[in-house]
Design a protein that fits this description.
The complex is a heterodimer.
Chain A (H helix, E strand, L loop, with lengths): L1 E2 L8 H8 L2 H4 L7 E2 L8 H4 L5 E5 H9 L4 E6 L6 E6 L14 E4 L4 H13 L8 E4 L4 H6 L5 E5 L3 H7 L4 E4 L8 E6 H6 L1 H20 L1 H7 L12 H13 L13 H11 L20
Helix pairs in contact in A: 1-9, 9-10
Chain B lengths: L1 H8 L11 H25 L11 H13 L3 H32 L1 H14 L4 H12 L3 H25 L3 H9 L4 H39 L4 H10 L3 H38 L9 H6 L12 H6 L5 H7 L14
Helix pairs in contact in B: 3-11, 4-5, 4-7, 4-9, 4-10, 6-7, 6-9, 7-9, 9-10, 9-11, 10-11
Chain lengths: ~290, ~325
């Protein structure tokens, strides 16, 4: 199971399912593997080193169109997690106010980039109307130092980090045609090991129910998986991040709305984010949802 | 003895087989490279390897041409090159004087050496988040990261070059009345220049890596960012095309500074042999040669002093950057 980011409480469903034996209850032997900072999202999946991956459904669709046939089997975040973060006293009150302002994000890739392009569309602006700055993972330093007027980041992580640094910020959301963090596997794995994937989803859904019922216990269960949890104040910060993440889960854990894929693909192709000529309905399945 | 060494150096590969040394040096690596490319191309054409893992060279070349014609790749390359060159230049501006100081002063060496060595134990990428906190994002922290990465090889080579100047030459220059400043500009720096340039060659090449690592971590609009973007979108052909351009940049820097190095080496060789009449006097002969004009048949003072049986061979060999030297600073 590939987790495409460093150890973090955002992966709590995996930690909880492993720690509380939900995977083994389903007859699965699951090894969790965090990706390195510069590691490709789907390289280990394509090479067969991983069977399942946790990444954005939009990123999976992009890979599918690039001949790495990753199929989304369950959507973990029903709400898209990316937002525009601006200082509390910023003149940016709406997405349209991005015009003429400098907006920083890690780079022209990933969910932050997809979201910004969609948000610019929603605001009725063109890409050239916004001064886009690629600043790596330095949103906090860039916004605090005044290098940019706003940054794109995750609602359940970056926004909270600003608060912990004593910086008062606001976040602006957008109604984007994108689907966020999900679980996926290669097309071949879906065809040959559908039962295993369905069992994995059942274990994850059970873990998500556990987290929703008792987030503090979920942090306890995740203790051995997150090195940062031993630091001063880390427990409270981690619990806060988990509660913000829970808000993205939606009402039905791992529910998949397959009808969103054609719209998402159309948008991605129109902005040069995905290769044309793919049937987007093949990049998603609802058959394995618990 | 020196003539013998020089002749030996200039015929590498002589007597090692039937391949002509000059021809073999160029043709053999080229042939091996072409064979490897052919095999690589075949793996792509015969679909032996998924292009997501290894695209064919022809596909990479086509992509490189398309990207160079496009609006992204060349500006990105210029950005990375600017960061790398600025970083290396900043490092050189600090490392060369410090290297000189380390070679000349026992106290300075004892103070600087441990810290300089310790700084090399820290992976440069681990410094990036700190640089961001202290400086903020943008061009400057990437330049600083480059400078930190290339500082040590430049300082080490400078110190090595200065410390390996035969004491006899320095003493002779002093006897000729050379003061510290004249000694520095007309004797020590010219003689140490091959080593300094070796450090700069390695440093400037390494600085390209520094810029890419910086962009990985701190963003920007260069080739490192482009690589990250290609990686995220599973665009392996784009990654390879970018890597080809990166390698080309590093090789060009290496070759350019290497050419400069050879030019300096050649001037130094002239200095140790004595210049032909009508040619400009080499830097090394500037001070030492003044009293010995017309003495060319016997070599310059520098050569004669260095070859007086107390270290002449060492003096001659040490001046040559290709001669293997032990990469440690001379202990006082």
């Amino acid at each position: 199971m590939g987790l495409t980011y460093i150890p973090n409480i955002q992966f709590a469903p995996f930690y909880v399912a492993a720690e509380l034996g939900y995977f083994s209850d389903e007859g699965l032997a699951v090894t969790l593997r965090h990706h390195g900072a510069s590691e490709s999202l789907f390289g280990a999946l394509a090479s067969g080193e991983e069977d399942v991956v946790n990444a954005g459904a939009d990123e999976m669709l992009q890979a599918y169109a690039a001949d790495v046939p990753v199929v989304t089997t369950g959507v973990m975040y029903q709400e898209y997690p990316v937002v525009l973060i601006v200082p509390e006293d910023s003149p940016i009150e709406s997405l349209a106010d991005m015009e003429g302002q400098s907006i920083g994000l890690p780079g022209p890739y990933g969910e932050n980039w997809f979201w910004l392009l969609a948000a610019i569309d929603e605001a009725g602006l063109a890409e050239e109307d916004v001064a886009i700055e690629f600043i790596g993972y330095t949103q906090q330093a860039a916004l605090m130092g005044g290098t940019v007027d706003g940054v794109v980041g995750f609602a359940n992580n970056d926004v909270l980090n600003f608060g912990r640094s004593g910086v008062e910020v606001r976040s602006l959301t957008a109604d984007v045609p994108l689907v966020g963090i999900s679980v996926g596997a290669l097309e071949e794995t879906v065809e040959t090991r559908g039962e295993d994937l369905a069992a994995l989803n059942r274990a994850l859904a059970r873990a998500m129910e556990f987290i929703l019922a008792d987030p503090a216990a979920a942090v306890d269960a995740s203790f051995d998986y997150i090195p940062e949890l031993t630091g001063a104040g880390a427990y409270e910060a981690t619990l806060e991040t988990l509660e913000a993440t829970m808000a993205l889960y939606g009402d039905t854990p791992l529910a998949v709305e397959a009808e969103l894929w054609p719209t998402m693909y159309e948008f991605m192709v129109s902005r040069g984010l995905a290769e044309p000529g793919t049937d987007p309905s093949r990049a998603v399945t609802t058959a394995l949802v618990p | 003895m020196r003539a013998h060494l020089r002749a030996h150096r200039r015929t590498p590969g002589a007597g090692r087989g039937t391949v002509h040394p000059t021809t073999g040096r160029g043709v053999l690596p080229l042939g091996v490279g072409l064979l490897a490319l052919l095999a690589w191309e075949l793996t792509g054409r015969l679909a032996l390897v998924n292009p997501v893992f290894l695209p064919a060279p022809s596909a990479i070349l086509a992509r490189l041409v398309a990207d160079v014609r496009g609006a992204t790749l060349l500006p990105a390359a210029l950005t990375t090159l600017g960061e790398a060159l600025t970083g290396a230049a900043v490092a050189a501006a600090v490392a060369v004087p410090l290297g000189y100081l380390v070679a000349k002063s026992v106290v300075a060496r004892r103070i600087i050496e441990p810290y300089a060595a310790a700084s090399q134990a820290i992976p440069a990428i681990a410094l990036a988040p700190l640089l961001l906190l202290w400086i903020g994002p943008g061009f400057v922290p990437i330049v600083v990261l480059c400078a930190i990465m290339v500082f040590f090889p430049i300082m080490l080579n400078t110190a090595l070059g200065i410390s390996q100047i035969p004491r006899d030459i320095v003493n002779a220059a002093r006897l000729d009345g050379a003061g510290s400043r004249v000694l520095l500009w007309h004797v020590e720096l010219p003689l140490a220049m091959p080593h300094i340039l070796t450090g700069l060659r390695n440093g400037f090449t390494l600085s390209v890596t520094g810029a890419v690592v910086g962009e990985f971590t701190m963003g920007g609009h260069g080739l490192g960012m482009l690589l990250t973007a290609h990686s995220h979108s599973v665009d392996t052909t784009g990654m390879f095309a970018t890597l080809v351009l990166l390698s080309t940049m590093a090789i060009l820097l290496y070759v350019l500074i290497g050419a400069l190095e050879r030019q300096v080496e050649s001037r130094n060789d002239m200095g140790t042999q004595g210049p032909a009449r009508g040619t400009p006097r080499p830097l090394v002969g500037g001070v030492l040669g003044r009293r010995r004009d017309g003495d060319d048949d016997h070599g310059t003072g520098a050569e004669r002093d260095a070859g007086d049986g107390t270290g002449g061979a060492d003096g001659g060999v040490d001046l040559h950057p290709e001669h293997p030297v032990r990469p440690v600073l001379r202990r006082g």
